[in-house]
Structures are given as structure tokens and as C-alpha cells.
């Protein structure tokens, strides 16, 4: 897909990964629809960078957990652009056990539902309302941004960063990726970018990472084959690949984790044999 002139709905652009994706798509000539809800300081810089007088981008406050507000977003896109070609489904909230502790704590009584409502249900709402707009243009693509939490849950060294509901929601999102690819074919491609430890998202630049001991941080890096965390810019480049260069790819899950899932165990040396 040629990105220039295409309309792209990018979730989470008030935060680092979504912001990097929005920047990369803007560089490629896309028109941007950027919903936001909280993080006032980040929203202010979002407006400065992508909004303002003369901008053709659409920035609006939307609580994507609420069906009526997502419907309003879709209606606004229809009025302003008449359709949509790109959906970047980058919406989630995940409590870190190292930071939040267990769900039984008073402060966490709504945390389980928050993680499910954002990480899974909001993705579904956005796809449901975006699909008619994507089909109307005759060519569309969806990228679901998920986490390796959906594979490993709360096991291993990353168990300090991934909560139970967040992990379950991400497992469910992968199922939706495959279902949506079947539902949207042949004119709309649906793929998934499953992230490991990324700076500002389960990596350096988060409160949870700062609470880990140096040994716990090192254990996470040692478990990652490339021995480092990823960057938002690397995520954005992978998203561009899925949109621009992967025209024969749909229903696929691309795991961008630096080899975390494969880490921790290594092939044994080949024995001499007995015969």
C-alpha cells in the first residue's frame, strides 16, 4: 500500500509508541486521526505537533471504552475524510505486578476490568466501527499492537511486568487478529505486531522498570537474545513495513521481542552418539 494521502487512525499517539508511529506515518504522507483521552501534558505536545491551524489531521477526545464515543469517532472520520485506509489498534492498559501488586488490593479493585476494557474490548469496538470505513476505500490494513504477555503470562522474569488480565486480554487479541483477517478479506488486511520489552512500555522509561533491582533488570535482558530492549522508533518502522511492504500478508502475528520468547534455553551441544 502506498501510504501517501491515506487516512490513518492511530490509537495511543499521546504516548511514546503511538507517537512514534504517528510521526513515521506523517513522514510517509498520511493524514492522521488521533484520538486522545488523558495524559494532559502528552496531549498538549500532541496538539502542538499534529494539530493547529491549517492542519488536515483530526484530533479529538474519545473514550474508546464507550461504544457511543467510538461511534462518534467513526462518524467524524466519515464526515471529514469519507473513509479510512489504516487502523493502528494500539490501545491498552496493563498494571505491572512490581508496581501495582495484586488485584486484591483496594487501589486495584477496578484494575482487572480496566485492563480487559482497554486491551481487548476497545480494540474490538474500534475494528467494528472502522471496518465499514476501511472497506469503502477498497484497500485497507489493520495492525493490532499486542504483547508477548499473551504467550508467557506471569511466568519467568517478565512476570514482574505483566499482570494476569493484561496477559489474558493479549491472548484474546491474537484470536481476534485471525478472526478479523478472515472477516475483512480480501480488501482489508489484518496483522498483529506482538511486542516484547520496549523502552517506555515494559522497559526503561517506566515506573515499573525503575522499581526492579539491577539483577531483575539484567535477568530480563539476559532472557532476550539480543540483550537489549527495543525502541518506539523500531516499532514504528515495523508498522510501516506491515502497511507499505507486506501486501501479501494477512492474519499473521509478527513477534518483535528481540528473542525474549526464545531466550532462557539454548540448544545443547551435539553429543558424539553411541552407535
Automatic annotation (TrEMBL):
UniProt-listed InterPro entries: NAD(P)-bd_dom_sf, SDR, SDR_fam
Region forming the signal peptide: none
Annotated family: Belongs to the short-chain dehydrogenases/reductases (SDR) family.
Native organism: Desulfobulbus oligotrophicus
Protein name: SDR family oxidoreductase
Tree of life domain: Bacteria
